[in-house]
């Protein structure tokens, strides 16, 4: 581990002894695959059966990974992190049904968040998922250039309007807006809309940010093409760079349907692709801004090193680091201590509605074995340090 990330005192400064114990206990549980499977099934059952488990979930996994049930409830967490120089991205993590009323409700929520974060230095970005605004099958159909029925065309127009409404509002309020990346089969259509939004609202500076999932081997070429368009048409590119969260699903589908997987052939190839994307963006900061969303120490360290080599100030507003709340505090808080821009995704929403998000976190940490053991050893190190 790079020495910059070794400081557990700073990493966990906001955690009380009992919160530290809870985090240790949680990651111990999460490290146990059969337990996560059983726990997930039991929790799902208990929620569906309306058993009174919410307070138990709240006191354990929810409070570790989420900021609260509403944006207002997140404020104490936001303020505490900001005291240590770490910003927040309020992430409305309710994954609802694919219904028009739900899409409109999500739109209203994002607009409300934009109003809420305006001029709050501690919350420099808003965020949403494209599938929060429309059905995944419809994105896929549009991405494949399939002919839409009249009803589908009207439905698609509503998706476009929702995008335009939030991007316009973000531009008016001068709040940067991150748009998450999702499954590759819906991403082409989303990319086209987001590129249009950049053309429209990123004329003076990056307001709208798309996401590049660098586990896809075609993303660097996509970025280079967008760069050509940006130079020709005069707009800034905002990009969140991540490795990507849907690898198993992507590979399974590619095999089932007999096409070449869009995913890089190995973890190393993904790592190299991620780092190449970062380098490309840092070399073109005249018209780009990058948000490196990663828990990978080496990648985070490389971004910092390249910035130094290129004499980009640590606090340059065009470079951000991002981690998820409840994970990799040793990266977030130690980078912030060095003056880098850091923002943690802070999920929020009613306890039972954010359960799919929490279950994904548990499953992800179970499958990314290295990450859980790293969290555990850092927590152990800090517990030991406090005892001494
Ligand atoms: C702030 C933030 C925002 C995010 N937003 C998004 C988003 O919008 N969309 C999204 O999809 N994800 C998003 N993610 C999740 C992200 O894509 C990763 O799943 C997660 O961060 C783990 O990757 P890593 O870079 O942290 O670290 P690592 O642990 O080093 O990398 C793990 C990742 O490497 C890749 N990988 C693992 N094994 C292989 C293999 N055999 N072959 C090829 N690749 C492999 C996978 O992408 C896996 O998730 C976000 C993460 C953060 C921190």
The kinds of small molecule bound in this structure are:
flavin-adenine dinucleotide
Categorize the overall geometry.
Answer: globular
- Outline the low-pLDDT stretches: none
Terminal-residue CA separation: 23 Å
Q: In total, how many beta strands?
A: 8
User: What is the makeup of the main sheet?
Assistant: 8 strands, parallel, barrel
Helix and strand run: HHHHHEHEHHEHEHEHHEHEHEHH
Summed over residues and divided by their number, the pLDDT gives a mean of: 93
Q: What structural class is derived from the secondary structure elements?
A: alpha/beta
| Percentage of residues in strands | 5-15%
Main sheet strand line-up = 1-2-3-4-5-6-7-8
Number of helices: 16
The radius of gyration over CA amounts to 20 Å
Helical percent range? Answer: 55-70%
In short:
Helices cover 57% and strands 12% of the residues.
Any descriptors?
388 residues; alpha/beta; 8-stranded parallel beta barrel; 16 helices; 8 strands; binds flavin-adenine dinucleotide
Structural account:
- The model has no long low-confidence stretch (mean pLDDT 93).
- This protein starts with 7 loop residues before the first helix and ends with a helix.
- It has an 8-stranded parallel β-barrel with strand order 1-2-3-4-5-6-7-8, surrounded by 7 helices.
- By secondary structure, the chain is α/β, with parallel strands linked by helices.
- β7, α14 (329-337) and β8 form a beta-alpha-beta unit.
- The protein is globular.
- The protein has helices spanning 8-11, 17-30, 33-48, 54-65, 71-83, 100-117, 136-143, 150-173, 184-201, 219-233, 247-257, 267-282, 297-309, 329-337, 355-367, 369-387, and strands at 86-92, 125-128, 176-179, 208-213, 237-242, 288-293, 319-324, 342-348.
- Flavin-adenine dinucleotide binds at residues 180-181, 211, 213, 215, 242-247, 263-264, 266-267, 270, 293-296, 322-324, 345, 368, 371.
- It comes from Kordia aestuariivivens.
């Amino acid at each position: 581990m790079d020495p910059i990330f070794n400081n557990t005192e700073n990493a966990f400064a906001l955690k009380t002894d009992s919160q530290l114990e809870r985090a240790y206990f949680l990651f111990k549980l999460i490290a146990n695959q059969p337990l996560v499977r059983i726990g997930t099934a039991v929790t799902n059952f208990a929620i569906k059966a309306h058993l009174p488990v919410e307070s138990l979930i709240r006191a354990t996994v929810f409070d570790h990974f989420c900021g609260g049930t509403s944006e207002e409830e997140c404020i104490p967490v936001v303020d505490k992190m900001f005291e240590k120089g770490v910003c927040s991205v309020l992430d409305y993590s309710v994954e609802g049904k694919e219904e028009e009323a739900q899409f409109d409700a999500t739109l209203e929520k994002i607009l409300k968040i934009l109003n809420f974060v305006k001029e709050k230095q501690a919350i420099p970005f808003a965020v949403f998922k494209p599938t929060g605004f429309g059905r995944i099958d419809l994105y896929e159909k549009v991405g494949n250039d399939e002919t839409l029925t009249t009803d589908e065309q009207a439905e698609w127009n509503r998706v476009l309007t929702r995008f335009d409404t939030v991007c316009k509002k973000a531009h008016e309020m001068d709040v940067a807006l991150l748009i998450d990346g999702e499954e590759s089969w819906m991403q082409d259509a989303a990319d086209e809309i987001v590129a249009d939004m950049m053309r429209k609202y990123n004329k003076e500076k990056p307001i709208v940010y798309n996401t590049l999932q660098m586990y896809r081997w075609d993303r660097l070429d996509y970025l280079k093409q967008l760069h050509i368009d940006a130079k020709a048409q005069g707009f800034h590119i905002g990009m969140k760079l991540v490795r990507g969260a849907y690898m198993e699903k992507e590979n399974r589908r590619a095999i089932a349907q007999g096409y070449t997987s869009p995913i890089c052939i190995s973890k190393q190839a993904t790592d190299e692709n991620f780092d190449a994307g970062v380098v490309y963006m840092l070399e073109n900061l005249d018209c780009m801004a990058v948000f490196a969303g990663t828990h990978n120490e080496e990648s985070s360290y490389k971004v910092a090193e390249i910035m130094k080599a290129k004499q980009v100030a640590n606090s340059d507003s065009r470079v951000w680091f991002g981690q998820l709340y409840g994970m990799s505090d040793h990266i977030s808080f130690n980078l912030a201590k060095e003056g880098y821009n850091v923002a943690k995704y802070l999920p929020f929403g009613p306890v039972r509605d954010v359960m799919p998000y929490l279950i994904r976190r548990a499953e992800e940490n179970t499958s990314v074995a290295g990450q859980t053991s790293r969290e555990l050893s850092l927590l152990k190190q800090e517990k030991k340090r406090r005892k001494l």
